[in-house]
Amino acid sequence: PLPTVAIIGRPNVGKSTLFNRLVGKKLALVDDQPGVTRDRREGDASLIGLDFRVIDTAGYEDLDAATLPGRMRQQTEAAVAMADVALFLFDSRAGIVPLDEEIARWLRGSATPVILIANKAEGKAGEAGILDSLSLGFGDPVQISAEHGEGMGDLFEALLPHI
Ligand code: GDP
Ligand code: MG
User: Residues that bind GTP 1, according to the entry (predicted)?
Assistant: First the structure.
């Protein structure tokens, strides 16, 4: 079986944009099961010749602020538990917000290795957010732009030891 990579992070950081870039036209399935798996998308990804299974923890659009964190925690922990490595995305333009810090706390006890990813890092708008992210405790983030396809070589190098 292919190694598995989970894409996690709060809503709107660019998880699905990265998923779509990695999976391209090879999207395998849209999961339709109830509960935690309902919003999970999986696909076969290829990055510079590296093949893996990728999981997008998607879709919190129907949730209000009160139910979001609990549901997100369930989904995040389920995806991370089944993955060989997790990509923890934040929005470098928005900077680090309390929900990012909360996710970082959930991940701290996890056995799955975590790679911190600064998305939306095209141009210089993300520099302050990238400095802030050091406080999350996952080291220097890999800087990418999922939308523009930048940083994919660095992402490849960060993934390689884990899959
Ligand atoms: P998700 O909720 O984490 O799955 O986030 P989405 O993939 O749906 O993206 C949320 C928004 O961020 C969309 O408007 C995307 O077009 C935008 N976005 C995603 N990646 C980038 C990026 O690299 N740069 C910029 N500037 N915007 C991005
Ligand atoms: Mg999404």
Answer: 9-16, 56-60, 119-122
> Measured from the CB, is residue 103 less than 6 Å from ligand 1?
no
pLDDT at 36: 42
DSSP string, 88-120: EEEETTT---HHHHHHHHHHHT-SS-EEEEEES
User: Which DSSP string do the residues of 32-60 spell out, in sequence order?
Assistant: --SGGGGGEEEEEEEETTEEEEEEEE---
Distances in Å between the Cα of 87 and the Cα atoms of 7, 80, 113 are 5, 9, 9
Q: How many domains does the chain have?
A: 1
Give CA–CA dist 151/55, Å, rounded: 20
Say which CATH number the domain at 129 has.
3.40.50.300
Task: Indicate the SS3 state at residue 23.
Answer: helix
Can you tell me the ipTM of this complex?
A: 0.99
Does residue 75's CB lie within 6 angstroms of at least one atom of ligand 1?
no
Residue 39 domain boundaries = 4-162
pTM of the predicted model, to two decimals?
Answer: 0.91
Closest listed ligand to the CA of 149: 1
